[in-house]
Fold this sequence. Notes:
Number of helices: 5
Low-confidence stretches: none
Structural class: mainly alpha
Helix content: 55-70%
Strand content: under 5%
Mean pLDDT: 79
Number of domains: 2
Number of strands: 0
Amino acid sequence: MTLSAFLSVIVLVPIGFVILYVLSIFLKYRKSSYKDASGNSFLQILFAKGNYGEFLITSRLKKLEMYDRLLTDIYLPNAYESTKRERRISSKLNESP
């Protein structure tokens, strides 16, 4: 085996594993109901850590089959603080037309 053949094997094997890993994520995404519930595309899941984590948790909870529907991107209010989003929504609701 020549040096160039050896180096190409060293480079191609990890690339093949990455392709298989991404393909397995894509197949899970395509089968899941997460894409409809969240509205996140596959690329958003692939490149955003938070979306990918949410996808993993949702897919694992779905396997439990305890409930028919899972809700994603839910913001729960805090008793002491409100998020910027909540303040913006409440200020719009309190405006008089």
